[in-house]
Amino acid sequence: MINETMKKLGEERSVIRELFEYGNRRKAEIGADNVFDFSLGNPSVPAPACVREEIARLLREVPAEVLHGYTSAAGDPAVREAVAAYISASFGATMSASCVYMTCGAAASLTVSLSALCVPGDEVVVISPYFPEYRIFVESAGGKVVEVPADENFHLDLPALGKAIGKRTKAVLVNSPNNPTGAVYGEGEMRVLGDLLRKKSAEKGAPVYLLADEPYRELCYGTSPVYPMNVYENTLVLYSFSKSLSLAGERIGYIAVSPRCADADGVFAAVCGAGRSLGYVCAPALFQRVVASCLGKSCDVEIYRKNRDLLSSALTSYGFSCIPPEGAFYLFIKSPEQDAVAFCERAKKHELLLVPSDSFGKTGYVRISYCVARSVIERSLPAFETLAKEYGL
Amino acid sequence: MINETMKKLGEERSVIRELFEYGNRRKAEIGADNVFDFSLGNPSVPAPACVREEIARLLREVPAEVLHGYTSAAGDPAVREAVAAYISASFGATMSASCVYMTCGAAASLTVSLSALCVPGDEVVVISPYFPEYRIFVESAGGKVVEVPADENFHLDLPALGKAIGKRTKAVLVNSPNNPTGAVYGEGEMRVLGDLLRKKSAEKGAPVYLLADEPYRELCYGTSPVYPMNVYENTLVLYSFSKSLSLAGERIGYIAVSPRCADADGVFAAVCGAGRSLGYVCAPALFQRVVASCLGKSCDVEIYRKNRDLLSSALTSYGFSCIPPEGAFYLFIKSPEQDAVAFCERAKKHELLLVPSDSFGKTGYVRISYCVARSVIERSLPAFETLAKEYGL
User: Fold this and answer.
1) How far apart are CA B357 and CA B344, in angstroms?
2) pTM to 2 decimals?
3) What's the gap in Å between the CA of A95 and the closest CA on chain B?
4) Any idea what DSSP says for residue B282?
5) B389 vs chain A: nearest CA distance in angstroms?
């Protein structure tokens, strides 16, 4: 009688959200300090000082009816100008305010872009393992997910991608730094990807778009990732300030359509139309202005780096196997038994909340979000060690 | 190649948004004081003091990583409790936190509810004239709009509604206080509507839902509107704090599913699923907490009442014809020529920005948003008077 697909989506929830809710209940039962919740990518490092300062300044200086009023649907013009200027100056990409659409965070950047581009029957290529909500977002836009496994180091498998992209491919969706693997695609592989997409677009006679989901751009422990627009013209950068400014709950991000995109004006119009159709009237007004003043700033990423080093070296020393992540704040370890779900259930007995890789489109691995207080990692280590011993590692 | 429906939606924009953007450009050209922009329902009365105080308190007392972090998808549990308690206490409706879903504002309340309920082929009955985005939201959820004209006083035409509701009707969408007419449906007509929906549900063998879009509830110049759940069980109240707290740009509201709804748990799950599918991860976290502390407060509604009185008496004295609005902040006047679009174009020459009723599903009227500074109304009156004279009123 109601929409059963939506009902099922609501009942199932994501595995990650389910664990997060379980963790909250468990913390209430046995005390927050006794649960080691590595489930959610909820930043533990506070927002940089500029966020609070800017909120205070705006409250002081801007009349409430202006500050909290509607902005234009695509965003406050000054905010869009600031974002465009930042992209141009930081990445050397040509960008104009007319190609910047402010969104309610990364998920909205994805649903709006996918609805703008896709028609029923279109295929969207994703690299597995991938963020599980990708499938929901692609399908709700009428598209079909085509999974292409990453290579053994969780980088792009370009020959496999070449085989998967065909006449029905509307877009390739990449996420670097990557959730859940922590991989950061190098400039070389991104340039080859750009060449591949250019060739495939020519074969198809229409653009194959690159959707670059980049909420972790600033959370990178090596060199900065190449800016996707600089390697390929038909690119939409989907950005969120959730992780860089630790504003995950405030729902603020943007879509930047490359001005070099074929029919860039048309694509941007479709983005505006999709936002309208999904009910996104404008991105939250106060935080639009806050992020415009904090562009290029970020939370203290060194804290995450130290978490990564502590956790990956300890787990490796206990016998777990992982590739050190190059970015984001996830450790992707091999499950010591083939069934990662069973492993995570066993870990739960030690109050370790880990996410099995199955819902990311890959079996046999586990995602550990290390965006937690260092003390959580420190206190959790004996539990990980015991767990390793149980598996005879 | 891209989604042409979305492109068209983005290019056309709403008539209202188009006028608003025109107004901004015109103000830049000839000065803000010389343009009388009555296009948008953007509150002019500042948010009540509790908003600013609560933001300051939260910034002072709650650690940033908690304050700005993800909440549960349906909202922060304490916020949902507060909303449920407020609804129970204020309206005497049974409500529980488990039936409250916090949203990114009224439009999201609508798109999420419609996606939760509708399957392709479903009909959604709207009362014309109606907020133009209703059509876009219903259609993007796969539904079909069935328009039922209001009666001559812009109240419910119950016999016509009775004829329009059939086997394919999934929901009836009402908006009281009404945009664009200012009508507030009385308790009597709402009770008859409840009886009608009950009868129609029995005939259909499945609920016909009542979607009560209530962003203007507090903007009422007579008695308070009846609470829709109290007249009919299969009700979803779609609320937004945009107007009551003058927070239109902050995108914060909620969906309250009546616990007396058939399969209330299923409906609520579908709401959660729809929110997930459309990319609404959670409602903006800071403002969730702000509104929870400001429930029952509102901006100074007397200012709007005085605007209404000034504008409606002046326009009536010039010869324009309107029914005095009972709520919201719109005056719906009869166009002095049959073609309201032509009338609005003529009004534009006097820098009066008015919205023709055509996109609201009714010809021959004009919507004037009087949520503007009183001085705008005062300065605009000579232009209205000249316009009336041009039409020989």
Assistant:
1) 10
2) 0.96
3) 20
4) S
5) 34
